[in-house]
Amino acid sequence: MTEEERKTITQAVQTAKKRIAEAAIASGRKPEDITLVAATKMNDAERVRAAIAAGVDVCGENRVQELLEKYEQHAYDGKPLHFIGTLQTNKVKYLIGKVSMIESVSSVKLAKVIDKEAAKAGICQDILLELNIGREESKLGIDPDEIDSVIEQVAQLEHVHVRGLMAIPPKTQPNQEKTLYFDRMSQLFIDISAKKYDNITMDCLSMGMSADYCEAISCGATIVRLGTALFGARHY
Ligand SMILES: *Cc1c(COP(=O)(O)O)cnc(C)c1O
C-alpha cells in the first residue's frame, strides 16, 4: 500500500465519521450511539490496519476463509470483529472465540449450531438476526412474518444472545424508496423490544451501507457497515 492510499483511506474514514455524527445528531442521537463497521472484504491486512488507525469502531468480514487469513496476520488487532456474510453451519466453529458478533444469523438452525459451538468454548455468542426485509428470493434471511417465532426459539439457547437485527435491503434507485425498508426494520425492532423477551437485548439495528448510511441512521440504525465508502471500489 502506498502512502497515498493510506491517506485516502484515512480521509474516507474521517469523512464517513463526520457524516455519521451529523446524521446521528439530526435524528436526536449522539455520534457515539452509532457503530461504524468497516466491511473489509477484498482489502488486505495493511488496508484494514489503516482503517483501524483512522478510527473505525469494528471490522466486519463476510467470508470465513478470508477472515481466518487476515486474523492470522493480526489485521484486526485492537478492534472487535463482526462476521457479516453468509455462514455455513460447518464453518461456525472457526469463528467462535474470534468474532464478538455474528450479524448474519438467518435461521434457527444456524443459531443452534452457534449455540453448540459456543457452549463447547464456554462462551455466550452475541448475534443479530438477519431479516430478508425485501422478501427477495435470491437472499437469505428470516421472513419478517416469522421473526417472532424465530426469536422465541433462539431465546431458549443458553450460549447465544440476540442483540438485535440486521438487514441488507433490496437495491433501489433512488434512495427514497430504501427508507421504506429501513422504516420497516425500525418498526420490527421497536415491536420486538416492546415484547421484552427473556435473554434478548434489542440494542443493535445494523442496516445501511456506503450508498445509504445516512438515511439508515435517520431511520434508527445503530450500526452501519461501510465498504466502498472507506476503501474505494472493490476489484473482483
Ligand atoms: C460488502 C458489505 C457491506 C458494505 O458494502 P458497501 O456498499 O461497499 O458499503 C455491508 N454489509 C455486508 C454484509 C457486506 O457484505
Automatic annotation (TrEMBL):
Residues recorded with modification N6-(pyridoxal phosphate)lysine: K41
HAMAP family: PLP_homeostasis
Family matches, as NCBIfam families: YggS family pyridoxal phosphate-dependent enzyme
Keywords associated with the record: Pyridoxal phosphate
Record's keyword annotation contains Glycoprotein: no
PANTHER family named in the record: PROLINE SYNTHETASE CO-TRANSCRIBED BACTERIAL HOMOLOG PROTEIN, PYRIDOXAL PHOSPHATE HOMEOSTASIS PROTEIN
Role of this protein: Pyridoxal 5'-phosphate (PLP)-binding protein, which is involved in PLP homeostasis.
Domain of life: Bacteria
Domain Alanine racemase N-terminal residue range list: 43-234
Organism the protein comes from: Butyricicoccus intestinisimiae
CDD domains documented for this protein: PLPDE_III_YBL036c_like (cd00635)
rRNA processing as UniProt keyword: no
The protein, known as: Pyridoxal phosphate homeostasis protein
